[in-house]
Amino acid sequence: MKTALLDCVELESAANPAASVVWLHGLGADANDFVPVVRELGLPSTLPVRFVFPNAPVRPVSINNGFRMRAWYDIAAADFNNRADMAGVRESQAQVEALIAREIERGIASNRIVLAGFSQGGAVALYTGLRHAARLAGVMSLSAYLVAADTLAAQAAPVNRDVPIFMAHGSADPMVRFAWGEASWRALVQAGYPVEWHTYPMEHSVCMEEIIAISAWLQRILRR
How many CA atoms, within 13 angstroms, populate the side-chain half-sphere of residue 82? Predict the structure, then answer.
């Protein structure tokens, strides 16, 4: 059965995009959360990119007393190993795959598509990107962590074994602990993935220095 497309906010950095970034928001936020960042990235007009910001489904979140909010998956506990509801993660994976397929239908090759996300969105971007069957341009995970690290070796797509990965984390993050992000980075490096790792003296957020680093990384991988 075909997965229904999520509603999205889209923004092009310049006319006639030659690449796409599918950017997933964090828990409780929505598709508009990172739209202002596109302008701050300052991408040159010679590198036109379509940014796709999907809305996560609204669902009850256990760690928030069952309150319904936009979430890519349920969170049962503040525990690194048992944090993510895997049924929800796989559902979101299918929804992201559908968005990738739409970008390909619109003329963007798979190897010109970046999966990106913040917090929960970053976890889903990593989970999906490393298992995607066709080559991607890159995966960006901000203030997030590696879901189901124990299944990655068996499920990883060979074509994306060396996909460029950008990871960044705030050293004072009280929500997605810095240790979780650091452990995820180390696990990926140990598995042989090329990860560009950045840390910033901040909490669960994004800073201008990080945005500058993201812009440089995007320009580098999309100009290959």
Answer: 5
Question: In angstroms, rounded to a whole number, what is the distance separating the alpha carbons of residues 23 and 33?
Answer: 10
Instruction: Give the chain's domains with CATH numbers.
Output: 8-222 (3.40.50.1820)
Cβ atoms within 10 Å of 93's Cβ, excluding its own: 22
Catalytic residue ranges: 119, 173, 204
Q: Please, what is the Cα angle at 16 between 56 and 132, to 5 degrees?
A: 45
Looking at residue 127, its pLDDT comes to: 98
Place of tokens 């059965």: 1
Which strand (E) or helix (H) includes residue 58? Answer: strand 58-61
Around Cβ 165, how many Cβ atoms within 10 Å? 23
Q: Containing H/E element for 182?
A: helix 178-190
Residue 194 CB neighbours (<10 A): 12
Rounded distance between C-alpha atoms, residue 115 and residue 100, angstroms: 9
Whole-structure pTM value = 0.96
**Mean pLDDT of successive 10-residue segments in the chain (224 residues)?**
86 96 97 97 97 97 92 80 82 97 98 98 98 98 95 96 98 95 97 97 97 98 91
User: How far is the C-alpha of 188 from the C-alpha of 147, rounded, in Å?
Assistant: 11
